[in-house]
């Protein structure tokens, strides 16, 4: 379902504007970080092995495409969706062999039960917790029975307002740190079963809080 910009919730518009602003510098800052994070790669590798060649995988909230590119290197049939048109353009330039489209987690333009796997890699963190049931409903809707969902997010129970980042001032964006127990319950309410949970210590200098990964299975 396509939602006109005028009908978007304020937090969606704020998120899009912020990431349109920082898209190029964001990609530059994150370039190479995956190679430095054993845990990130371990979870992505496990997700790729669980999904296998069963069908398409959506990197939902793909940013500059670095995670989609890594999953493609593992043999997955992966594409990306992101709220920010500027991020999508960066991803298309960086990974011309993959498909990237603009879209929202609140209303994915994907058919029911069309994905063998879905990835929300730090892409739920700008959605107010009260709206997260809608997001999890969409994530569950697009997965085939038995399909896997991998989530990554910062651990906590507070909201951080961001006004500076990636070399830019004048941003206005909220980022929510989330309790794993809350995310597990949201997943369960959407019909997903948690298969694994990992919480790790932050890896400085880019992280200040523990990080969580959850793998869930539909049905």
TrEMBL record:
SUPFAM superfamilies according to UniProt: S-adenosyl-L-methionine-dependent methyltransferases
Keyword Methyltransferase in annotation: yes
A Pfam short name: Methyltransf_25
GO biological process: methylation
Keywords: Methyltransferase, Transferase
A single GO molecular function term of this UniProt record: methyltransferase activity
InterPro entries: Methyltransf_25, Methyltransf_Superfamily, SAM-dependent_MTases_sf
Start and end residues of each Methyltransferase domain: 59-147
Residue ranges crossing the lipid bilayer per the database entry: none
Organism superkingdom: Bacteria
Name used for this protein in its record: Methyltransferase domain-containing protein
Organism listed in the record: Amycolatopsis saalfeldensis
């Amino acid at each position: 379902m396509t939602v006109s910009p005028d009908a978007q919730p304020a937090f969606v518009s704020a998120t899009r504007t912020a990431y349109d602003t920082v898209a190029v510098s964001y990609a530059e800052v994150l370039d190479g970080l995956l190679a430095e994070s054993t845990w990130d790669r371990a979870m992505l590798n496990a997700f790729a092995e669980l999904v296998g060649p069963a069908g398409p995988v959506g990197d939902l909230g793909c940013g500059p495409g670095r995670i989609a590119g890594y999953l493609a290197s593992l043999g997955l049939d992966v594409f990306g969706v992101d709220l920010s048109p500027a991020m999508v353009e960066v991803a298309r330039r960086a990974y011309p062999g993959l498909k990237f489209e603009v879209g929202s987690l609140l209303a994915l333009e994907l058919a029911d039960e069309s994905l063998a796997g879905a990835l929300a890699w730090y892409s739920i963190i700008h959605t107010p917790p009260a709206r997260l049931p809608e997001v999890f409903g969409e994530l569950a809707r697009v997965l085939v029975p038995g399909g896997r969902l991998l989530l990554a997010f910062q651990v906590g129970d507070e909201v951080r307002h961001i006004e500076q980042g990636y070399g830019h001032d004048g941003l206005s964006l909220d980022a929510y740190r989330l309790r794993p127990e809350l995310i597990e319950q949201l997943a369960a309410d959407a019909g997903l079963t948690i298969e694994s949970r990992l919480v790790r210590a932050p890896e400085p200098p880019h992280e200040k809080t523990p990080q969580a990964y959850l793998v869930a299975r539909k049905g």
